[in-house]
Design a protein that fits this description.
The protein has about 950 residues and is of the alpha+beta class. It has four domains: about 35-250, Metalloenzyme, LuxS/M16 peptidase-like (Cytochrome Bc1 Complex, Chain A, domain 1, 2-Layer Sandwich), CATH 3.30.830; about 270-485, Metalloenzyme, LuxS/M16 peptidase-like (Cytochrome Bc1 Complex, Chain A, domain 1, 2-Layer Sandwich), CATH 3.30.830.10; about 510-730, Metalloenzyme, LuxS/M16 peptidase-like (Cytochrome Bc1 Complex, Chain A, domain 1, 2-Layer Sandwich), CATH 3.30.830.10; about 750-930, Cytochrome Bc1 Complex, Chain A, domain 1 (2-Layer Sandwich). Helix content is about 45%, strand content about 20%. The strands form four sheets. It has a seven-stranded mixed β-sheet with strand order 12-13-14-18-15-17-16, with helices on both faces. The protein has a six-stranded mixed β-sheet with strand order 1-2-6-3-5-4, with helices on both faces. Strand 4 and strand 5 form a beta hairpin. About 40% of the residues are buried.
Length: about 950
């Protein structure tokens, strides 16, 4: 017996020795920082990260990360971490109130879209992209950050003015989700300080705190040893370091600074069950949380464990998605994932949306699938697929590492400082993945089930509408489901065999009959033998990206009223049922590890196909396009599952005030025209006839000559041409019978005022919609767009900053040519019901100022500078070019029009904007909609 034990021990030891030799990776080593980043700490304790990155040109992404959030507030400070963030924009050492936003707008940085900040439980982060082509602008960017760090003035009058804005932000967030969240968060964050420290805070504190209370929070936590400055972008690292040292090096830590404590979320042996209802909740959701202490993110072993958790979650989510598509499925949607709630708390979750009467079945199904994995594990095929997807993602990131934009990189260093997350570079990641992923065995992934899905520290949350309260299970019934599953005899998951090819027999190819190269914009116009026109712009903007779209005239408009719903859902149903021999689930499996996506749609006046692909997967994208044209799949079961799920969701949504408002607003804007109506009631879904929808879809895609195709990206033209001939040149077409759209008379009403009453929360919504018919004019189209941006600046200054009546407000305008030349301009904002009239009047005051005097040159220049910067960046993006090509063809404009974009920006004048305001923003063009609560 001793001999046998010795032999076994020796074999086990030999196995591990061999395994370690095979691995060749010392997993105890720390994951290195991206070698392109320079990280350091100033003598005063401030941390910095600097990375030079060339895209986009002439811009640096700046972040100020403060290791302090709402969890550090005292009882008298609840909400003041967030309030402090607001005060950073209301007067600092070097910028008076409103000067900061105005200055940044003047150099092309817009408030909200670019300049922003956020506060959470554990941190506050300030966001500032700054131009770097001018050293003064760059210096001022660091000046702004340094002011936020230790130069916020906190003047009494500014604090008082901001109180109402915080209240409006709080008001905007009110509703069923907030009411439910406030009940289940204390359970999720059981017995911890986090449970009573929501970042928005308590409004009684916000309205009444003493000035010194917020100043104390600022002094305590905004200090060098609690801050990081992150600078990623197009500037020399040496210069960026000099600026950090200059603007932050003299900062001092307070002599009696409080300790930055960290807070735990205690574990618990029992399972907490929270069953919550609300009269406005739109549906039933079940969530199973298996809570864990936050796992370390330091070593390569930690990274390997992180990968295994991702593989596990990805495979289980795929299984749940397959169940969702079955007849009489226990849930409408479901998924799993591993995440982090607060710094001390990780979780593995399984959640789903269920239909009334299926709550217990939905919960049990989630438990069963976790248990099925625990008993039988995943299959090798499942693991291989998800490995391919993960490896492909890492490879794409590696290929694009020299073309990645700074805004996509800067967050990794913010998270590294605040949360200790990995901040590895793409090259290291790709190499590590290539070595580690193949070594991750099915056995160790399957073993994870017992670790992730635990019997202690478990929370189950069920939320639903008040009307379902009596039908929801009780706590004891929920807990009994776990015991029932323990007694079940489960079967292993069965893998469905798939065809090896998307297209088994290739169609006879067409041929290219004409090629024209437009040198000025480097566009190739290609005509195929079946009449199909293709426009190709090769670029070097991305190494591994090709973007494409196709558009044909007609859409839903060519069908009669009785076909309206079938036509409107034709594209949706094909995406639901699949193409060729492949359901959507089958397609996901086939495309695992591929970088390709294709979507078809039938819109109001056109039918479209769009997507993207890696150059190596371009042929697969072309095959998918071919199948979307020629072989939409009919699947009665998937159709019925979709319709039943839609009915359930629409029925559940009827009690939700936001949904009610959307429904009533749609009917107001449709002005009684069926063809402008969407489906909002469950019974309307009965009007969608499956076979008729498929007939309409087939008809819309039956004539390829009716389409124009646009491809932009890393395309090698000579390699691409045979693919065009094979997959687009072979499409059925009739160049002599091209379709056009039909004017269905869809027009929004004008000169009309509507009041919509929904919900019980004391919050209103205002929409001022100006519309009309007008022959399309490119200059006027530009002017109405600029007018929207200029008016937004003025409305923020007045409605938010002066009156304090809104948290957010915006205006926007555009012109179009379908179904006739038209314009549309809107002003929208949420507010308190008692402020509706005052704020509408104030909006009209700003409109009339522009009509009578034109905008200020200063405001126009702000918009122009923003547009110049955006244009320079967009001209290096494939998506922008693809959209431009399609738009230029639709509007009948020459290719060279793109090259005149900068010239067109310079040509916009104060007079032109004034005339646009006078022409478009008049009451005879206005539909004004006001939302009020029912209790008004």
């Amino acid at each position: 017996m001793k001999t046998n034990k010795t032999i076994i021990s020796t074999c086990i030891l030999l196995f591990f020795v061999l395994f370690q030799g095979f691995s060749q990776v010392d997993l105890s080593m720390e994951v290195p920082l991206d070698p392109r980043v320079r990280m350091g700490v100033l003598p005063n304790g401030l941390t910095y990260y600097i990375q030079q990155n060339p895209k986009p040109e002439n811009k640096v992404e700046l972040r100020l990360a403060v290791n302090a959030g709402s969890v550090l507030e005292t009882d008298k400070q609840q909400g003041l971490a967030h309030f402090t963030e607001h005060m950073a924009f209301n007067g600092t050492r070097n910028f008076e109130k409103n000067e900061l936003v105005s200055y940044l707008q003047s150099i092309g940085v817009s408030f909200g879209a670019d300049l922003n900040a956020y506060t959470s439980f554990d941190e506050t982060v300030y966001i500032l992209p700054i131009p770097s082509d001018d050293e003064e602008k760059l210096r001022n960017g660091f000046l702004v950050l340094s002011d936020w760090a230790d130069g916020i003035l906190m003047r009494e009058e500014d604090i008082d003015a901001e109180r109402s804005i915080i209240v409006e932000e709080w008001r905007t967030g009110q509703g069923y989700s907030q009411r439910l969240r406030d009940q289940y968060l204390p359970i999720m964050l059981h017995d911890s300080k986090y449970a009573d420290r929501l970042p928005i805070g308590k409004m009684e504190v916000v309205k009444n705190f003493k000035y010194e209370t917020i100043r104390q929070f600022y002094r305590d936590w905004y200090r060098p040893d609690n801050l990081a400055v992150i600078a990623v972008g197009d500037a020399e690292p040496g210069l960026l370091l000099e600026l950090i040292e200059e603007f932050f090096g003299e900062m001092e830590n307070p002599k009696k600074a409080p300790e930055r404590k960290y807070f735990e979320v205690p574990e618990h042996e029992e399972t907490f069950v929270s069953i919550l209802t609300d009269h406005e909740a739109p549906g039933i959701q079940v969530q199973l949380f298996y809570k864990h202490k936050a796992l370390p993110t330091n070593s390569k072993e930690d990274y390997r464990n992180f990968l295994i958790r991702n593989l596990y979650g990805g495979m289980l989510t795929q299984r749940l998605d397959e169940i969702r598509q079955q007849a009489d499925a226990p849930f409408i949607f479901a998924g799993t994932g591993y995440g982090n709630f607060v710094r001390d708390l990780d979780y593995f979750s399984a959640s789903g949306v269920v239909a009334p009467g299926k709550v217990e079945a939905g919960i049990q199904s989630l438990i069963i699938e976790n248990e099925r994995v625990a008993q039988f594990g995943f299959t090798q095929a499942e693991l291989d697929r998800v490995k391919r997807a993960v490896l492909n993602s890492a490879e794409r990131a590696y290929k694009e590492m020299d073309k990645a934009e700074s805004r996509l990189l800067v967050g990794r260093y913010v998270n590294h400082f605040l949360k200790g997350r990995f901040a590895e570079g793409e090259a290291w990641k790709y190499e590590f993945y290539q070595e580690i992923i193949p070594q991750i065995s099915l056995y160790e992934v399957n073993r994870l089930a017992k670790t992730l899905v635990r019997e202690d520290n478990r929370v189950i949350i069920i939320t639903g509408p008040e009307s379902e309260k009596e039908n929801l299970p009780g706590e004891s019934q929920v807990l009994a489901l776990f015991e029932e599953v323990d007694q079940m005899e489960l079967l292993p998951y069965e893998e469905r065999l798939l065809a090896e090819q998307l297209i088994e027999v290739l169609p006879p190819p067409g041929s290219i009959v004409a090629v024209k190269h437009v040198e000025a914009v480097d566009i190739h116009e290609i005509t195929l033998s079946n009449g199909v026109k293709v426009f190709v712009k090769p670029t070097d903007f991305k190494n591994d990206e090709i973007v494409f779209s196709a558009r044909g005239e007609g859409g839903v408009s060519v069908y009669n009223d009785e076909d309206h719903y079938a036509a409107s859902y034709a594209g949706v149903l094909v995406n639901v049922m699949g193409i060729g021999d492949f359901s959507p689930s089958d397609l996901r499996k086939m495309l695992a590890g591929k970088s390709v996506s294709v979507t078809a749609n039938v819109g109001t006046y056109s039918q479209t196909i769009s997507g993207s692909a890696s150059p190596r997967d371009l042929e697969m994208a072309m095959q998918l396009m071919y199948l979307y044209f020629t072989d939409p799949r009919d699947d009665k079961e998937l159709f019925e599952v979709f319709i039943n799920n839609q009915k359930t969701q629409l029925a559940s949504a009827q009690s939700n005030p936001d949904y009610q408002f959307s429904k009533k607003l749609n009917r107001v804007i449709a002005d009684g025209n069926l063809r402008a109506s969407s489906i909002y009631d469950p019974e309307e879904l009965e009007q969608i006839e499956r076979q008729r929808a498929l007939e309409i879809y087939a008809d819309r895609f039956s004539n390829a000559a009716n389409f124009e195709f646009f491809f932009t990206g890393n395309i090698e033209l000579e390699t691409f041409k045979p693919l065009l001939e094979q997959y687009l040149g072979s499409l059925p077409s009739d160049p002599e019978n091209l379709d056009s759209f039909r004017d269905m008379g869809i027009r929004a009403p004008r000169g009309k005022f509507e009041t919509i009453e929904v919900g019980t929360d004391e919050k209103s919504q205002v929409i001022m919609l100006f519309t009309g018919e007008l022959e399309y004019d490119r200059k006027k189209s530009t002017d109405i767009t600029y007018l929207g941006e200029i008016l937004t600046i003025k409305l923020i200054e007045t409605l938010r900053e002066e009156i304090g009546g809104v948290y957010g407000v915006g205006a926007s305008g555009s012109m179009g040519i379908q179904p006739v030349g038209n314009f549309s301009f809107s002003v929208a904002f949420p507010c308190s019901p008692d402020m509706v009239d005052t704020l509408i009047d104030a909006a009209w005051v700003e409109i009339r100022k522009i009509q009578e005097n034109g905008p200020s040159k200063e405001d126009l220049d702000k918009v122009k500078e923003k547009r110049r910067i955006a244009l320079e960046e967009n001209l290096r993006r494939n998506n922008f070019w693809n959209a431009q090509l399609s738009t230029l063809r639709l509007y009948g404009l020459p290719w060279e029009a793109v090259l005149k974009a900068k010239e067109n920006i310079e040509a916009v004048s104060v007079d032109r904007i004034q005339k646009a305001a006078q022409e478009f923003l008049v009451k005879e063009n206005l539909l004004e909609v006001r939302k009020y609560p029912l209790s008004r």
